[in-house]
């Protein structure tokens, strides 16, 4: 499920549930991005697939990572909607955040089903950085993971920058809130 922030032209968060059975045989490769047809039908502005906002500095950051939902063509394709994508610093996306996503995937494969919420946040929504075409650039990405069987949750957030700042690991969910 995706909660879309119309004012920021970004997803607010994606929520998903993944079991060890889901991630045993994942489909390889990438899909093409596309504008969300439900948001299009409502006349909601989305980032364009070919927006120059996504360049060498800013990647198309999936909130729900495509790899983790690649157990079927349908679930994989759902992660490629622009309603699930926000500007994410290239290094941040391709290094610390990708490692976090891989660690979560490995945990699911070898341990237990998880409820996951991944979203973005802003220091000051009224003064958020914007791309030339109006897309807000989040200051933070966060993930909250809930292991319902163990009755435990943890939160992680990272600074969404263009350079090599890292992820701030393992906080109580209350701090992420």
Q: SSE layout and pairings?
A:
Layout: E1 2-5, E2 10-18, H1 37-41, E3 58-62, H2 73-78, E4 85-89, H3 90-110, E5 114-121, E6 140-147, E7 152-159, E8 167-171, H4 173-176
Antiparallel strand pairs: 1-2, 2-5, 3-4, 5-6, 6-7, 7-8
Write up what this structure looks like:
With 177 residues, this protein is of the alpha+beta class. Helices cover 20% and strands 29% of the residues. It is built from 4 helices and 8 strands, in the order ββαβαβαββββα. It has helices spanning 37-41, 73-78, 90-110, 173-176, and strands at residues 2-5, 10-18, 58-62, 85-89, 114-121, 140-147, 152-159, 167-171. The strands form 2 sheets. It has a 6-stranded antiparallel beta sheet. It starts with a strand and ends with a helix. The model has no long low-confidence stretch (mean pLDDT 90).
Task: Characterize this entry briefly.
This protein has helices at about 35-40, 75-80, 90-110, 175; strands at about 1-5, 10-20, 60, 85-90, 115-120, 140-145, 150-160, 165-170.
The percent of residues in helical segments reads: 10-25%
Let me know the number of strands: 8
- Number of helical runs? 4
Q: Please identify the structural class as seen in this structure.
A: alpha+beta
> How big a fraction of the residues is strand?
25-35%
**First-to-last CA distance:** 19 Å
Shape label: globular
The value of Rg in angstroms is: 16 Å
Helix and strand run: EEHEHEHEEEEH
- Quaternary assembly: single chain
The overall pLDDT average reads 90
Spans with pLDDT under 50 lasting ≥5 residues? none
Largest sheet: 6 strands, antiparallel
Strand order of the largest sheet: 1-2-5-6-7-8
């Amino acid at each position: 499920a995706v909660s879309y922030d119309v004012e920021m032209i970004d997803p607010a968060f994606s929520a998903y549930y993944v079991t060890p059975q889901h991630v045993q045989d994942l489909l390889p490769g990438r899909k093409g991005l596309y504008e969300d047809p439900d948001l299009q039908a409502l006349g909601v502005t989305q980032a364009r697939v070919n927006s120059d906002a996504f360049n060498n500095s800013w990647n198309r950051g999936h909130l729900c990572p495509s790899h983790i939902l690649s157990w079927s063509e349908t679930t994989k394709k759902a992660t490629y909607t622009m309603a699930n994508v926000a500007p994410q610093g290239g290094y941040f996306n391709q290094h610390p955040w990708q490692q976090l996503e891989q660690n979560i995937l490995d945990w699911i494969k070898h341990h237990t089903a998880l409820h996951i919420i991944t979203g973005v946040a802003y220091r000051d929504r009224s003064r958020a950085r914007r791309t030339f075409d109006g897309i807000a650039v989040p200051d933070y990405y966060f993930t909250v993971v809930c292991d319902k069987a163990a009755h435990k949750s943890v939160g992680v957030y990272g600074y969404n920058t263009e350079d090599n700042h890292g992820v701030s690991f393992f906080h109580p969910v209350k701090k992420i809130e």
